[in-house]
Write a structure and sequence with these properties.
Elements lengths: L2 H15 L2 H15 L1 H21 L6 H20 L1 H29 L20
Helix pairs in contact: 2-5, 3-4
């Protein structure tokens, strides 16, 4: 990558880090990190995930054990998704992903001269959430 392009990419990254959407992700992550109940569940989930990976690496994994672990993981994941701190993080991440997608659409247009993507955007921005 040439130096000028690197500098412009860095400036874009710095500008994106100053958006309200990115700041909301950071704040939501901090809130989730401070939530002791959520952290305990995340720790349990990660432990089960490690056990699952180890179990799946066995030559003949015990199907009953795999099913039980998967069920436990789904239960914990369900509990996590109901927690306000996790919901706030997911919403903030979605909003920031929308910003990233908008930037990618602009870059795609500048590079290719084409609007839209595989979803069939016809260039009419009235109903598009990406450019607003």
């Amino acid at each position: 990558m040439n130096l000028e392009l690197f500098e412009k990419a860095r400036a874009l990254g710095e500008a994106m880090a100053q958006t309200d959407e990115y700041k909301a992700v950071q704040a939501a992550q901090t809130q989730l990190d401070a939530d002791e109940e959520a952290q305990a569940l995340i720790g349990q989930y990660n432990g089960l995930q490690t056990t699952m990976q180890e179990l799946m690496q066995a030559e003949n994994p015990d199907r009953d054990a795999v099913a039980a672990l998967a069920s436990s993981m789904r239960q914990i994941q369900g509990q996590l998704t109901q927690m306000p701190a996790m919901q706030a993080l997911n919403e903030a991440q979605t909003a920031f992903a929308d910003v990233l997608n908008s930037v990618n659409q602009v870059l795609r247009f500048i590079i290719t001269g084409q609007t839209g993507d595989a979803d069939g955007c016809g260039g009419n921005c009235a109903g598009c959430k990406g450019c607003e």
